Amino acid sequence: MQQKIQLRLQPNEAGNENIVREFIADTLGKSYNQISGYNILKKSIDARGRQIFINLTVNAFIDEPYQQREIHQLFLQDVSHSLHSVIIIGAGPAGLFAALSLIEKGIKPIILERGKDVKSRRRDLAVLNKEGIVNPESNYCFGEGGAGTYSDGKLFTRSSKRGNIDKALNTFVQFGAEEKILYDAHPHIGTNKLPQIITNMRKAIIDSGGEFLFGKKVIDFVIKENKITSVSTADGNSFSADSVILATGHSARDIFELFFNKNILIEAKPFALGVRVEHPQEIINQIQYHCSTEELEKKALPPASYSLVEQVDGKGVFSFCMCPGGIIAPAATNSGELVVNGWSPSKRNNPYANSGMVVQVEEKDAINYFNKIKNKNSYVKNNALLLMRFQQEIEKKCFAAGGGGFVAPAQRLADFTNGKISSSLPQCSYIPGLASVDMQNVLPGFVAERLKEAFKQFGKKMKGYYTNEAVIVATESRTSSPVRIPRDGETLLHPQIKNLYPCGEGAGYAGGIISAAMDGTKIAENIAAKFY
Ligand SMILES: Cc1cc2nc3c(=O)[nH]c(=O)nc-3n(C[C@H](O)[C@H](O)[C@H](O)COP(=O)(O)OP(=O)(O)OC[C@H]3O[C@@H](n4cnc5c(N)ncnc54)[C@H](O)[C@@H]3O)c2cc1C
After folding, report:
1. pLDDT tens digit string along 230-283?
2. Which residue intervals of the chain bear CATH 3.50.50.60?
3. Which ligand 1 atom is nearest residue 217's CA?
4. Is the CB of 137 within 6 Å of ligand 1?
């Protein structure tokens, strides 16, 4: 017999298989030996009270042999001689999952990726961090695996309506992720493990007969009778296929410019902008678990995280992409623009906790901003690129404020809210370095004022959060795409171009690794349904 039961355990009990079996036996009124094993279905931490509990939902095997969890694997066909082929622009999670799903359906993907493979990309990241030089084709956003490769690899998503989350997680396990991502309430993989998983996906795509091409920056399309007949790359090549999936991510500004210049329909899309805040991890552990970092291991607890949100003066201010035990990364794609983001290794064992802290930005905010700085050339009313230009403007301002070389403008948290320039800055994980500035002069006023108020409110929710031991670093600006590429709700096709599928985060249909992956799968399944 198998039975699903819920258990509430102390953290070190939950990590011990024998103890969990004892609890299962007690709960079911059975003997220990009658429980042959169990599979965890859900695991979450309840740290609301002074005592911390782990909530486990398990499937227990009683008086019958234990069976290991089944991993639902994609069955990849040989597509080398497929009658149908699809060009996928961009090898981020959306592009990779689209390719795998096309192969599952017997269709050949041709992936065109502007960047390099994960290994070569790592070298470019080292140069960026240590020498402050960015390669515009190979950085934290561009290259194999997209923006998701050198990330925290958090796989939590609220977008259950967008697709099958379990299928996406199982696919990550098929290509090398640990099984615990299937049941952790907030699963994550870690920067150290993601590159191998992405490499395994590429190998599977190539072994199945798909094409996977690096250094292929798409710069133009030939459009005839409302269809893309060929795709041109910067190295002078061109490619043709039945359909084109555009999965170029939120940082492919040249693609947005290309659409704009070719009069292909795109729209400005609200996004969020702010700073990355970093605390010593010790402070966050004390606030959330009432215990020191040293005690974590004894108590079998992971480094603590948080999620904060506040409405300030009619706008949402919220934490974004929180990385416990993480590093703040220079995530710009061009020189002269400063962008920060965060990542962490699988063990999340760095001494800092960082998180984006961002404010919603709408078109009217950008118009007011440009009006105030009297830079009316930078925007045209109703311009689809308005919010992208605003994003770029703030990134440039931050680069200049840091003094170059990706040194980031920064201020201690309480100093910022009190309008005081920090006389010194704390140690920070951001490798290119920090410059002490008055962030009020760097951030747009509507962002700075709301952040100040929100930080005070967050300090009330989490006692110890509002402290000068924390530092804010600017700017967190690539939270989502500032442009939407429209598509039909049913066919998923662009309204003007009858074989173009806008896909993933860049087109405005995803906000993270899993939702981008699910969007890639959804498009591939849609294409397959048309062919067969
Ligand atoms: C440092 C960092 C940490 C992050 N942490 C997390 C996290 O923990 N959890 C989470 O869910 N999300 C995280 N994100 C966000 C996540 O990575 C993205 O939401 C996700 O990768 C979007 O997937 P995508 O496939 O739509 O686009 P992308 O991943 O952006 O991929 C787009 C791809 O297209 C390529 N491309 C662009 N233009 C062209 C062109 N003209 N020709 C050819 N190729 C092109 C790019 O090189 C890139 O490989 C993080 C992002 C960063 C930068």
Report:
1. 999 999 999 999 999 999 999 999 999 999 999 999 999 999 999 999 999 999
2. 85-267+481-531
3. 42
4. no
Answer yes or no: is the C-beta of 370 below 6 A from any ligand 1 atom. no
pLDDT digits (tens, 9 = 90+) for 103-126: 999 999 999 999 999 999 999 999
For residue 506, the ligand 1 atom closest to its alpha carbon is: 26
Instruction: Name the β-bridge partners of 57.
Output: 6, 42
In the three-class reduction of DSSP (H, G, I as helix; E, B as strand; rest coil), residue 138 is classed as strand
- CATH 3.30.70 region(s) of the chain? 2-62
- Residue range 48-74: mean pLDDT, rounded: 94
Burial 516-529 (b: 16+ CB within 10 A, else e): bbbbbbbbbbbbbe
Any atom of ligand 1 within 6 Å of the Cβ of 24: no
Start-to-end CA distance of the chain, whole Å, equals 41
Counting from 1 in the atom list of ligand 1, the atom nearest the Cα of 323 is 8
Is pTM beyond 0.85 here? yes
Q: Is 217 in the pocket of ligand 1 (CB under 6 A)?
A: yes
DSSP states along 283-338 = HHHHHHHSS-HHHHHHTT-PPP----EEEETTEEEEEEEEETT-EEEE--SSTT--
Instruction: Give alpha helix (H) positions in 403-480.
Output: 413-417, 445-461
Closest C-alpha residue for ligand 1 atom 17? 148
Containing 366, the helix (H) or strand (E) segment is helix 363-372
Using one digit for the tens of pLDDT, what is the confidence trace for 514-528? 999 999 999 999 999
- CB of residue 89 inside a 6 A radius of ligand 1: yes
pLDDT, position 419: 96
CATH of region 2-62: 3.30.70
Q: Does ligand 1 have an atom closer than 6 angstroms to the CB of 87?
A: no
Query: What does the pLDDT read at residue 71?
Result: 93
CB 432 within 8 A of CB 406: yes
Level-2 CATH architecture, domain 85-267+481-531: 3-Layer(bba) Sandwich (3.50)
* Residue with token string 């309008």: 419
Predicted pLDDT at 375: 62
Given a cut of 60, is residue 378 above it in pLDDT? no
Sign of the torsion formed by the C-alpha atoms of 248, 253, 258 and 259: positive
